[in-house]
Amino acid sequence: MTKQQERGRIIIGKRRSQTRNYDQLTKDYPLASVEEVSELDQKNFEFNIDDFLLSDAARKYMGDKYPDVYFALYSSYVSDEFRRCDDLANQAKGRLLLLGIATIGLALAALSLAAIDIALLASLTNPTAFQKTLKVSVPGAAAALGIFSFLVGFFGFGIKTPKRNWLLLRMKAELIRQWRARYYLNNMPVILAAVSSEDARKAYTSKQKKDFDHFTSKIDETSGALLEEMETGASIESLSIWLPQFDQNKTRAAPQETIEDEAKKSFFSSYQEMRFDGQQRYATHIVQGVGKLRTHPRQQKMVTHKIETIALVCIVALHVSVTIGVLIGEPALKSVYIHLATVLFALFALASRAVADGLNFDENIRRYTGYLSKVQILKSSFERARTVETRLATAWAMEETASDEMIEFLAQFKRAKFVM
């Protein structure tokens, strides 16, 4: 076995022919190291960090590396619920994206029909019966489509509920992620005490399941409250009704208690690998990588930018055509069709920008850039810490940072609208 395999890294080939899906990759290399992310072909890098140990290979890797604390690292009960919520959230996001693009498409159709009416139909002096029908129906259709797309995009008619469902599902999945990490930290003394006792491990697992059931039932009952606070500005305290908070009495350590025994080393090292490394790796992928168009903001930005660029190039070319037509007196180069095409390309560029506003990828990338910087600073402090007290404080600072990022994400996408 190679050194990279021992460290459990995912090494993804830099050639497209080597691309494999995440499940296949994790059969060989369970977890990707943070240091290698920048060296990977980002087109082949899957976003699923598997910090819930969803694959057999990831579970084997963590179980072999951290046998003392593995019972607290993995719970099929918790992981299965996260997978369910995560899958539902991704499906809901896909439906919302289709609705948003359809809304922009309706607006584009409305404005295009209006332009066609002005350029081609309104100027007809002796229209046929069919052209008369068009002169009446095209403006009416344009107005109807325009009003409908505005109501859907601005006021959320038909799109508000799917959007809310997506945000609720994504929030629940991320709250499960945060609950899992916070529960692990808050139960450090219990976990360390259970290292040498099978009965204590079983007791911990049983209590974790009960606590998780209580946590998820509380989310299902009250999670809508957080979304309602987004427009007025929720704070980290808003999450205190769901997430475990730092319990100093429960995790109290002597001021100079050092990290010497193997159990403590395993506890903190496993937390770092699954939390600091996982979040840093994912944020790096979002900021620097390329992924699926449906979910990756950088990929979305690249595609919409290309559409805008093509449309603008066509607009300039058409303007040049009109200019040449005026200079040489060629009617074909300055006809009404050239002007109509210019307007239509301008509308395509505007539609692309409206999709960008709805997807909110610029703000998304900026948010992850700031989050990545914070995670890197905290990780560095965590690695330098030499006492239990300092490491716990840094770990809890990481959890507060993750919660803040989630609140910012929810607020950002609650404000986003598909309006053209």
Q: What distinguishing features does this structure have?
A:
disordered N terminus, mainly alpha, elongated, 420 residues
Mean pLDDT across all amino acids: 79
Order of helices and strands: HHHHHHHHHHHHHHHH
Biggest β-sheet: count, sense, barrel?
none
Assign a percent range to the helix content: over 70%
Distance separating the two termini: 56 Å
Rg (CA only): 27 Å
Query: What is the approximate shape?
Result: elongated
**Derived structural class:** mainly alpha
Give a structural overview.
This protein has 420 residues and is an all-alpha fold. It has helices spanning 3-6, 22-28, 34-37, 56-65, 70-73, 76-121, 129-155, 160-186, 188-193, 198-222, 224-229, 262-288, 297-328, 336-359, 361-384, 388-415. The longest helix is centred in the first third of the chain and has 46 residues, at 76-121. It starts with a helix and ends in a 5-residue tail after the last helix. Mean pLDDT is 79; it is low at 1-49.
Break the fold down into its secondary structure elements and pairings:
Blueprint (H helix, E strand, L loop, with lengths): L2 H4 L15 H7 L5 H4 L18 H10 L4 H4 L2 H46 L7 H27 L4 H27 L1 H6 L4 H25 L1 H6 L32 H27 L8 H32 L7 H24 L1 H24 L3 H28 L5
